[in-house]
Design a protein that fits this description.
2 copies of one chain form a homodimer. Chain A is of the alpha+beta class and about 140 residues long. The first copy, chain A, folds into 2 domains: about 80 residues, Winged helix-like DNA-binding domain superfamily/Winged helix DNA-binding domain (Arc Repressor Mutant, subunit A), CATH 1.10.10.10; about 60 residues, 2-Layer Sandwich (Dna Ligase, domain 1). Chain A has 5 helices and 6 strands, in the order αβααββββαβα. In chain A, a hairpin with a 5-residue loop joins strand 4 and strand 5. The longest helix of chain A has 13 residues. At the A-B interface, helix 3 and strand 6 of A face helix 3, strand 6 and helix 5 of B. Strand 6 of chain A pairs antiparallel with strand 6 of chain B, so a sheet runs across the interface. Chain B binds a DNA duplex (30 and 30 nucleotides) through helix 3.
DNA sequence: CTAATCTTGGGAAAGGTTTGCGATTTAACA
DNA sequence: TGTTAAATCGCAAACCTTTCCCAAGATTAG
């Protein structure tokens, strides 16, 4: 896909770099701390505002944990997860199950698709066993 | 699918009823207001806590708006959305595109799947046009 | 170069959600 | 039915995120 978006500010580029450099997703708070540490000083508000902007440009995606935290990652990293609704631990899926899926044209005709989020929720083995043990 | 979960408290049932009765998703705040109005008095904390529990039981699902609000809906209502990253408006998808998708067994062997969220993000027609106008 | 306008940034405040903790209710068992 | 342990509740505080508002910087026209 061509890199058609232009006009990233210097700080937006910094944020995007930081996200790309880190193999894991990051919360807004952690991103802020990392940037402070790496000499790119930036207010917390600015971090969140630019994250929002980057989402609007289709470059950054986020997902929400049950704890209320929001984790951000670059869109080009097409990761999805299994998340345990009990302990909150997540596993990364090896591949995107809907990579080649087509949405009905009628629904996307008036909509420029930028990215998607697909998350699976359930019980991990240990939480499941714990519940079984209690219910018996 | 059989209703295998048991042991819902009276308040959890009230919350579930309220969600089922309302055709739209609801925020925690709105749910709380509705319950106050319908004589089922309940603290805000209790609402959120029980929503979490209902998620753990696989009966309720939520999605997060860019505003930070969280919207809850019953899992049996298998709805997904197109959401505009600019204006935040959402459209409901007519059908679930991954209803019949199989995850690799290797990844779900140790995981009891309860539900999923699938959300598409992009630009709605009017926001897209506005951006084009600016960029030219 | 200057002035008016528009965009961007930061601090403080507000909003929604979650957590901690003592008090109350529910449930189990005798 | 009475006693006791466990689960649940609600308030207050904490947390993360977003919004408000004003100052600083950039852009454009004259």
């Amino acid at each position: 896909m061509p890199e058609k978006r232009v006009g990233l500010t210097a700080r937006q580029q910094k944020i995007l770099e930081e996200l790309n450099d880190c193999p894991d997703e990051m919360s807004g708070q952690k991103l802020h701390r990392n940037l402070l540490a790496s000499a790119a000083n930036m207010g917390l508000t600015t971090v969140y505002r630019n994250l929002r902007t980057l989402q609007q440009k289709g470059l950054v995606r986020c997902r929400n944990l049950p704890t209320g935290e929001t984790l951000y990652s670059p869109v080009n990293r097409d990761h999805h997860h299994l998340t345990c609704v009990d302990c909150g631990r997540t596993m990364v899926l090896k591949s995107c199950p809907i990579k080649n899926i087509q949405l009905p044209k009628a629904q996307t005709r008036n909509f420029e698709l930028l990215f998607h989020t697909l998350e699976f929720f359930g019980l991990c083995k240990s939480c499941h066993q714990r519940q079984e043990a209690i219910e018996i």
